[in-house]
Design a protein that fits this description.
heterodimer; A: mainly alpha; MetI-like fold; 13 helices; B: alpha/beta; Rossmann fold; 2 domains; 12 strands; globular
Chain lengths: 308, 355
């Protein structure tokens, strides 16, 4: 009979002891906020951002990363395999492949980001005009359709054939090849948004057309445009490498992943490391950009947002 | 009940619509010659200050198109739209902009009618700034606070985004935006159709209070006859792009003179399980507005159809002051009309009998 009494006496301390257990539930929630929580909820974006940050830092800090002059010839040390001196080996002219790959990141990143920004700006302007000025719409869109019927890489090769090889010309020709895709996207988004009642309400409450575009339409196109920009960035990097690989892009005096690979092409069966390292860097960078893009798409998608 | 139109019979009405038509070409899968869809096919009415005119009809009858035409969100094919006697149907977008202040619209969907990226105060300030109705930032802020109070939302609502509000609250914001332009008339395009019953009643009461306080005219577009009977002064009934009957509320709900009106009325549910009513059941669907029936457009579904209906288009004829209807039954000297009227009378609201 003492047992229940003793149990009742013990009950009070037990109940006070269990009460502090509640915050455990909250601690899980706290952990899901901040940087760690973001990483947990969006592992793709986090991985992509980290990878991309490494490549960007490497490109900026290239002279500090134990590199040598990437164009310095050393005929005596041609096609050496990776060693403590030449981490990624040397190419057919004895140049240090590690240094060339690190400096080559600059070209890829500059081309990728410049093309993404420029094609989005031009595509946005063309798409807004096409979506809002009905008489011009069919003319603009037929021209864009015509440009889209040519694969972007072929169009870029053709444009490069007309000019001198330089990073600026590479950016220009890839931008021209990518503009139609952006303007199509912008036009379709504009056509969808301009039918929304809040846009019609803006018009009936006396807002001018430029102001309606600026205040009501543009902010709502930014989500899909950001995602498109990342895909253009990745595709521009690949096209740049391809152009340089066939000798139609970055001039041989500037190291880029494409022309490093081009130099290793003849020897790839006996000296695969020449082509391997720039290829790995290109793949990793493009993967990083695509991970960020796909992650952003899921993140900005309103349906996905509701789930979170 | 005094007719608000009596007070100012000389001045041109606030809003007048004459023979309004909207047609567009539709082609079948890209081949064949394009066909003409007549969404609105000759609609005329007037709206005077402080008055509520309801446009009712089935979905697809063109009532929302009429609203969009008046707001110039669609271009009319023919006809005239006049505000205070001044035509606005042919004005360029630039010339129209200052005229837009006088007629504003409240949309059906409270979720897509507010920009998700703008704070409520910016949404309400937009028309105030556009029409220069307040000078200076502090005056605009005061006006926004007044507008929120007018639709009975707390002043703190201004700092929030639309997604933080419920459907009924969003519709209040939509009404506040319409009021921000200081209009004389508000077009309510199914403005309460998407709301719950209790919220619907609150919004309808709000609209009535605003009408009383501000002398607003309302063009109330709805398929909900119970709400229409509660709020309206006059009713226009539309069928397949045409108005078939128009009269004051009492006449329409008490003694309709068009079988389609009677059928609509008989479909209104009565919240009393013991009241039995003979319903006029219409067979079939609304015919296509691409290929409307010859003669009277309603003859394919009319329970009182006779030969003349199939060949001759009935004109909208004045039956007495303020009551027009387009039905051949009203011309008949002998008594099919009486039979019809008898059934039409049964179809009318039994409330008249009870009171």
């Amino acid at each position: 009979m003492e047992a229940p009494a003793g149990g009742a006496r013990e009950l009070a301390p037990v109940s006070t002891a269990t009460a502090p257990a509640l915050p455990d539930i909250f601690r899980v929630r706290i952990a899901s906020g901040g940087v760690l929580g973001f990483v947990r909820r969006h592992p793709a974006i986090a991985t992509g951002v980290v990878l991309l940050a490494i490549v960007v830092l490497a490109a900026i800090l290239a002279p500090l990363l134990w590199t040598v002059d990437p164009t310095a010839l050393a005929p005596a040390r041609r096609a050496r395999p990776p060693s403590a001196v030449n981490w990624f080996g040397t190419d057919m002219l004895g140049r240090d492949i590690y240094s060339r790959v690190v400096y080559g990141a600059r070209v890829s990143l500059i081309v990728g980001f410049s093309v993404a920004i420029l094609s989005v700006l031009f595509g946005l302007a063309i798409g807004l005009v096409a979506g809002f000025v009905r008489p011009l719409e069919s003319l603009i869109m037929r021209v864009m359709d015509g440009m889209m019927s040519i694969p972007p890489i072929l169009l870029a090769i053709t444009l490069m054939a007309l000019t001198r090889g330089s990073v600026g010309n590479v950016i220009l020709s890839i931008t021209i090849a990518e503009i139609p895709r952006v303007s199509r996207l912008v036009r379709s988004v504009v056509l969808a948004i301009r039918e929304r009642p809040y846009v019609e309400a803006a018009i009936t409450s006396g807002t001018s057309v430029p102001m309606t575009i600026w205040r009501h339409i543009l902010p709502n196109t930014l989500g899909p445009l950001t995602v498109q920009a990342t895909h253009i960035c990745a595709s521009a990097m690949i096209i740049e490498a391809a152009l340089s690989f066939i000798g139609a892009g970055t001039p041989p005096t500037t190291p880029s992943w494409g022309n490093i690979m081009a130099e290793g092409r003849a020897l790839w069966q006996v000296k695969p490391f020449i082509i391997l390292f720039p290829a790995l860097f290109l793949s990793a960078t493009v993967l990083a950009v695509n991970l960020v893009g796909d992650g952003l798409r899921d993140w900005l998608d309103p349906r996905a947002a509701k789930r979170v | 009940m005094s007719d608000p139109r009596d007070r100012q019979s000389d001045a041109p009405p606030l809003l007048e619509v004459v023979g309004l038509k909207m047609q567009y070409a539709v082609s079948k899968a890209g081949f064949g010659k394009p066909q003409v869809l007549r969404a609105v096919d000759g609609v005329s009415f007037t709206l005077t200050r402080g008055e509520t005119l309801s446009i009712v009809g089935e979905s697809g009858c063109g009532k929302s198109s009429v609203a969009r035409l008046i707001m110039r969100l669609e271009e009319p094919t023919a006809g005239r739209i006049l505000i205070h006697g001044r035509r606005i149907d042919h004005l360029s977008a630039r010339a129209l902009r200052p005229m837009r202040r006088q007629v504003q619209i409240v949309f059906q969907d409270p979720f897509s009618s507010l920009n998700p990226r703008m704070k409520v105060r910016d949404i309400l300030a937009e028309p105030v700034r556009n029409f220069r109705l307040a000078a200076g930032a502090s005056a605009v802020r005061r006006r926004v606070a007044d507008l929120l109070a007018q639709v009975r939302l707390p002043a703190s609502a201004g700092e929030r985004f639309p997604h933080e509000f419920s459907g009924g609250q969003r519709q209040r914001i939509g009404i506040a935006r319409a009021l921000a332009a200081e209009p004389e008339a508000i077009v309510c395009d199914e403005a309460v159709s998407a709301l719950d019953l209790s919220v619907k009643a609150q919004i309808v009461n709000l609209l009535q209070d605003l009408q009383r306080d501000l002398g607003l005219a309302l063009l109330f577009i709805s398929h909900d006859l119970a709400i229409v009977e509660h709020i309206t002064h006059r009713v226009a009934v539309m069928y397949l792009g045409q108005s078939v009957e128009m009269a004051d509320r009492r006449t329409i709900f008490g003694g309709p003179r068009h079988p389609y009106t009677a059928a609509l009325l008989s479909a209104v549910p009565i919240p009393d399980p013991f009241v039995k009513r003979k319903r006029i059941l219409l067979s079939g669907d609304v015919p296509s507005p691409i290929n409307p029936p010859a003669g009277c457009r309603f003859h394919t579904r009319c329970p009182f159809v006779f030969d003349r209906c199939r060949t001759e288009i009935p004109a909208l004829r004045q039956l007495r002051e303020g009551h027009v209807a387009a039905c051949h039954l009203n011309d008949l000297p002998d008594q099919p009309l009486a039979r019809a009227a008898e059934i039409l009378g049964e179809a009318g609201r039994p409330i008249e009998v009870q009171s």
